[in-house]
Amino acid sequence: MSCVNGAVPTTIIVAGLALAGYALTMTAMNRRMSVILLGALGVLEILLLVLVGLIVAKLASGARPASVPTLVGYLIAMPLVPVAAAFWGLLERSRWGPAVIAVAGLVAAVLMVRLHQIWPVIHV
Amino acid sequence: MSEQPASTRTGPGRLLVAVYALFALSATARAVVQIATKFHNAPVAYLLSAFAGAVYILATVTLTNGSPTARRIAVVSCSVELAGVLGVGTWSIADPAMFPDATVWSGYGSGYGFVPLVLPVFGLLWLRYWARRTRTGATAATPAEHAGDAPR
User: What is the C-alpha to C-alpha distance for residues B22 and B114, in angstroms, rounded to an integer?
Assistant: First the structure.
């Protein structure tokens, strides 16, 4: 069986970890939320939406994972992670705003590993 | 020194609430799917997952609210959570047959990078900071505290 393009999840892992590293550096340096952080979060959001599109295309071709409800849950929750982090992080006017963004980056990376466990055709 | 956070949901609390919300959502959603689709595989594990999800939801809501009553409930839910992760963690190692499928708290939260183990500790430390600050006649109290506190 053919696989979902592995370049996208791999890019999301690298981008998520890089975002988390940068955001935690900002927290350590006592910086607030910045346009750069929001831009990086936007890039992560676009990558996640591309992956959702690829997985939906895979489902449309007739392939199914062991647990469809779990995968559908991930498809809904995944693109909400950067949005929720941006909302919650922007409310904070201290170093802890970037810390919230760091969590979103780490979660995006972990979600890629979990997606592979849910449906091995999504490989990294 | 930087400004003091205004509420349990601001400053470091912003990060704490974000991680609690994440666990509330993931533990609850996972338990709902497991109970709905394959309850008989591992009933104890799935019910414990659902209970963990409920505790995380309660902690998220009360830490976000931050009123004195909410903080007291948050102390209870964080304590239950710590007892849960230690108890279920030990139980899952002593009697793996009871847990054919993992819960959030199995192996002391090892499936979730041990975050379930450290989260209640940070929650309780944060709540202790707030309890002390309120006791010492705090500045920048929450609106709820302003309403209830007479000037000392």
Answer: 14
